[in-house]
Specification:
The complex is a heterotrimer. By secondary structure, chain B is mostly helical. Chain B has 13 helices and no strands. The chains are: A alpha/beta, B mainly alpha, C mainly alpha.
Amino acid sequence: MKRHVRLLRTAVVGGASLAMTLALAACGGSGDSAGDGSGEIHVLVYGDATNKVEKQLVDTFNRTSKVKAVLDTIPGADYQSKLQTIISGKQAPDLFFNWGGGSIKPYVDAGLLMPLDDFIAKDPGLKSQFLPSVFNTAVVDGKPYGIPMRGTQPVLLFSNKKALAEAGVTAPRTWDELLAAVKALKAKGVTPIALGGGDKWPTQMWFQYVYDRVAGPDHFQKAVNGDKSVWASADSKRALGMLKELIDAGAFGTNYDSVKFTDGGSPALLATGKAAFELMGSWEYSTLQDAYPDFVKSDLGYGTFPTVEGGKGDPANLAGNTNNFYSVLKSTEHPEAVAEFLKLMYSDEFVKGQLGIGNLPTTANTPKFLDGSASPAYSTYQYDLVKKAPAFQLSWDQAYPPAATTTIHQAVQQFFSGQTGPDAFIAAMQTLPAA
Amino acid sequence: MRNRPNYLAGLGSLVWLFVVGLPLYVMLIATFQSRTEYAANGPLALPERFTLDNYLNDLDDGFAQYFLNTVVVTVCVVGIVLLLVPPLAYAIVRSDGKATGRVFRLFLLGLAIPSQAVIVPMFYLINEAGLYDNLLGVILPTAAFAMPVCALILSGVMRDITPELYEAMTVDGASPWRIFVQLVLPLSKSGLSTIVVFSSLQAWNGFLFPLVLTQSSENKVITMGLYDFQTEHGVDIPGLLSAVVLSMLPILLVYLFARRALVQGLMGVGGK
Amino acid sequence: MTTTAVPTVDSAEKSARRGRPGGPVTGVGRPGIAWAAPAAVFFGLFALVPLLLVVVLSFTRWNGLGSPEFAGLDNWSRLLDDPVMVKSLWLSLVFTVLGVVVQTPLSILLGVWAAGRQRNRAVLSAVYFVPLLLSITAVSVLWRAVLDPNFGVPSQAKWLFGDGNLFGTQAGAIGVLVFVSTWQFTPLHTLIYQGAARAVPGVLYEAARIDGAGTVRQFFHITLPQLRNTVVTSTILMVVGGLTTFDTVLILTQGGPGTDTTNSAYYMYQKAFKSFDFGGASAIALLLVLVATLVSLVMVRLTGYDRMRSTMEGV
């Protein structure tokens, strides 16, 4: 018996000392990140090439501000997962990158975000200096929660002019022209359309546009707001039928689900002429510029998505990422500093920096600097599109809350691969939670 | 009569050599060419213009830092395992208390806990302890999950020490501590090297814990560097493959210079 | 069996702990539970406590924001109705069985072959070993590039790969996953078998040769039976590895096409960190643990790991 007590004691002492080691280590760890407490704001952004500009702006800010900004980045596809796991904890940033819409809705619902009305009241520029169609993407329940902080990224139909010419087709303006082009290209042995189906979101882009052209932007808006019946509407079925027709015509070849955009597969298909079209976000331009500068100079074409006869959507409507946004956490200890930092998002320095790396900001002063952009013609073209677009549909997987992403991606992929039909697609979309 | 099957075996061994070698060949030659060339000429063609840019770019991108982090993680994990497992295995083999038996069964059960299964609460605990995005937060669970197998391997080796040796020492009045230091440890060298190899591979190649428990580039380990490389510079296959080559270099060096120890260590994973 | 030894051990231990190494000369100096305590506490803290939390979380609703809410059996009843869950269990099983079936004969043959002392075998074995130097992440990334349908090997070998749509069909994607694990892990198992094959006493072969048995017969009548225990060990490693396949799925297929390679481990991760359904994810996690425990219990029975313990009891 005595021995047991002794053992217990040993175990407890051992455990306690281990726990203490841990606790000490924990103190050490958090001491580092908390800093001196007298003034730091943490700015969390998606890690990629644009960080260059963000870093520059943080430096500019820190030159004059007492409260110092610290830039934290989360690279890659895990941004959303990481954000959700830290946003309500000790590691929460003061302001963070997001896609507006559904991507911040759960945080608004959880009472984590600060409505920006007060900031805007003090500095109206925080609203008036941005294109309304973009600014509105981050309005949730009638209140603004985000300030645009990067470039707009509409989805465009890119093409390889040489491949088109060889097949004797021109860039299609209507859906029927697209179908005809597909036929002609296929006859030439070229994959008509490159699709990075392995990533799933490129597949989704086709749904976004066809639904917009056929059913109009209100259709999806209703769905996101919780009206599940619209997925079973005649328009919805017509859109699915058209997509099916395109797929069955062999527009995407047969192995698109093994191709990815993110590993360079689909852009390479386009650049090497093995495929003639690719529907992709405007970043396609800089991606190609990076890897195939000669192709971009001579043979890269770009245009809007074809119109659909008898459809309800305006041919000038766009889909894609309207922009990215900074949202502010209620828990921030330095709201004034945050407001000051946000003002930089429509500064000349910001606009020049973004244009310099090929991004297209959506501020009122952007046109002044378009000539200084990395590719003036392309930037001007895009800016005009965005400015004139009657509606700019945020990507479906961003418009819905993050939890819906997997379902959407699986549904679009299974529909494209022919594994499921329209009914299964409709049923899958009807399971999505309202945003 | 004994020769014919050997030809067959020889043929089979060459087929396997091809399977093993082909991707390695693709990887190596891709790293020495530009992406344009790789896309244009296909994966099997030799580079026309030899370049080291891919490697240099990777190092610029912070792979040196990831290396250092991975080394820190690996050394610490091995340290913890070496500190805790030998006494445990010793107790498993030599103690006769019921409690030790239970502890052993606990570790056997541990074999069946996949690290994925506990990742959610692990994230919660590490976050609460303030160790999120801290290398220590990766080290501790990695070490814990390396322990069951290590305990199994080492106790297996320690069992092979003949009871007579123990008796001889205890007749001399040696304490468990002295027996442990003077008898058990020297005679379990093979087992110790096995658990060093096993736990360091575990740490070096760890994926899930760093994936969920770290985020910033200061605390990135190599596997995360590779994973993020895919999404960040997705287009750049030669760059990506150079990073893969870089990630294996240290182990390759160990392999070249300490092949025997490494191989013996791994053979030990399967038991004596 | 051990009762007679207990009192003496006890006193030896006590004296040892008092720092008096002298003690009763007749006693056997055995270590006490204190020797196992640090490891046990450490392991408990980082493996068992989280496991308990998994149990708790599986009865809650939690999306990572705010605090978990008690949800009763909600997650569990949802799981049972979830076709993807059932499919994922099935896929885990498929990965595991295919892994064992493909890797075991391959690594036995390679291992026995490599156990020969010939020079060329040593050289080739050294090359075979290389995949083991790469992490699973690196291997997955590498194969993703190598198997790209347009710019990888399939584009050069159409006779073998057709249109190269390996990741677009279930059979193709499962094939890739099994193949990639085989590529990476066969070297380890080869090594294990090589070690075991070398440990087979030479006299057995000599005796067989005198009886006129050829290589093939020697292999089946001597080598294989002698490797029996090694097969079990190696299989355990494969089974545990197969059930928990995750990195390869995440990097190579993301569970696709559709949900066709979404095994339980990946489904759990997806539920937790993509759909933020931590309650549902915990329920899957628990299921995973239960299955793995069941499997390893059966394995432990088969291997006699537990008997090993009891035979040593009286020593």
